């Protein structure tokens, strides 16, 4: 998003809608529609223990370090040192890289439903080779555009968000109301229990993926200083945005469950099938290809915006000496070309899993679960780090603060977010009973090995740093414990000591 002038202040509702636009995606609705009425419980539960804590904690951290680079690298690094700060931002980047094939799979399915034959469209949407081709074609096209410079992408993203998310969500709800009001029979049992069947433990697995639906709200924390009276107005924006988000998810999920029987729900196709069924009911089948294109446009506009996004964060940190010079190269437009190319190769390799997994749906689910796991590790670091900094940096000004006095409210909010993230992390390892994921051995192997490799990689890179990796033109502010150590001319606290030769005799980065 473009920088906002200091003289222009964001209103409460404006920031609330910005948060909604950044978080809401309709592609995940079918996953929760399988739970019927109890899906509302999952949405509300995840909002209380994850969405709201993420927004508030990120706002405090962003306000604390508003004049310093690094984002989550800064937040976690101030608490636990550079190694874990680098781990956090590395996870954020890799998570987004793994996310691309899953979101583009949804885009490929949407494009498949632009045909005139239902049977042909569904067969094409289920074809893994078609999905692979579309994912790779669109991703590399987005990468190519990113390398050319993306000053115009902001307008495309706004249009895509409105045309591909907000309008379809509203339309889906209106169609459900028309369907029921005119005598249509609901496929969802609204007489069921609001609370899920906790005795069937593996049924909770798909629900754990709902945390990723809400992920990304921490990005809104950067705007905490762009509001009048943020201590009062920012929480209002958070709660309004959270309420709108939950309403869209709950009513959108119900709208799908009303028109599609639970046994026929498919994670990648059901949103399009739901629209198609509603349009047939109101004798407007000609709208099916239109909504399919709109949804695909929303997905593609989002991916176009994000292809270069998370990579910018790790690029800035890399120039401070955390990545080899190869990853610091830019093209004539100042775009981090080598990071984008490596990211593209990773997306390509992940997409090739299409030909290994038993179905497009199983591929979609296992990559979604791995994405959740990696992102949740970052959130665990963020929540615990925020609590730790209340004691380790107690005198640092907090323009936005959770609780006017003491640390009790931070313990409650941060602890709730930490425990919610930990619960979702554990549940994400369990294979879902609703989806054929093939061998459980493959499921566990991909998730466990994937987590180990991704978590180990930044520590290995960190241990391999060399003085030549530092870009001398980069000014990266030192951490507070480095400043204290320099001022006192004493070693930094034990947990923050850096023993490698890279920083020996040099000014801290």
UniProtKB/TrEMBL annotation:
GO molecular function per UniProt: transmembrane transporter activity
Record's signal peptide: none
Name of the protein in question: Amino acid permease
Cellular compartments per GO CC: plasma membrane
Localization (cell): Cell membrane
Topology with respect to the bilayer: Multi-pass membrane protein
Comp. bias regions, Basic and acidic residues: 494-509
